[in-house]
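Before drawing any conclusions, I looked closely at one protein's amino acid sequence and its backbone structure tokens, quoted below without any editing.
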Amino acid sequence: MFIVNVQGAIMKDGKFLLIKRGANEEHAPGILALVGGKVDWEGASLDVLEETLKREIDEEVGVAVEDEMHYVYSSSFVTDKGSPVVDVVFLCHHREGKACNKSSEEVECVYWMTSEEILQHPDSPPWLKESFIRIEKMMGKNKLV
């Protein structure tokens, strides 16, 4: 069985909201990441990925995103403790709220960065860079700014 994880590339004024993961996180502690988390079983429901992402964004950084989200891509990986994960990335647009590390165990810091800054940052892991390569390509084709 896979864990299902969702992440949001939250855009506002040409920048994206990133977090530095908490030092005690199970997977990839202390690195730059998108905001997101695991899908929990809540019974039969609609838009489970999108609703999970909205909840995780609010819980971790205290902002709300627009209802319309754009699928970027999915991937799979194994956590540092050996759990298989399917990860789904969405492009989201900031609606309201000031970003902060609302969940200090999960989020050490928050940053607003351009995609260029993210791609050049020494603490950006390869999978984060891949997300922004795909987001830039998607935005260029579809004008999702």
